[in-house]
Amino acid sequence: EDKNVVVSESFVHCDKNHIKQMVERVKQHGFINFYGEQRIGAPGTSVQVGVRAFEIGRVMLGKDFKGAIDLLMQGTRHNETVEARKVRQAWKDSNGNPSVTLKAFGKANIMPRERAILRGLNRYPDNPLEAIRFLSYNMRIFYINAYQSYIFNKVASRRVKIYGDKVVKGDL
Questions:
Q1: 50 — phi, psi (to 5°)?
Q2: How far apart are CA 161 and CA 5, in angstroms?
């Protein structure tokens, strides 16, 4: 990951002529249907956004379930509430003690995935795989699918870099 990449948004004035040109471009060249933020995570460096779902999926596929829990507990760095940061700090300060971290939630009804994992760790302190199984099947699979989507985006990007927008064998 290039830590020097600056991510920004830009808007193009959209008139009828521009729309017509873009439709024609898609007709002639197609488009790469990348997975977006919802699956991959927010744009920016790890320092800016924290842990993304695909990173958790990658370590799960490597059977590093303790590592997956650590990443989940580190969380994202954007759009988090003060309460969420308090819980994450309790995890860090307690050296990953699930009981201490659960108390940091107080009455806040937040972070259901992290709460489930912490309950799993309380029940199975020496078995991170069993703790991860406290997440729903759909949530566990989401992390794996996020990594698959990340790989797809990387391969699609490389394909565009090598072949540009011309159609080549294997595209369909």
A1: 85, -150
A2: 17
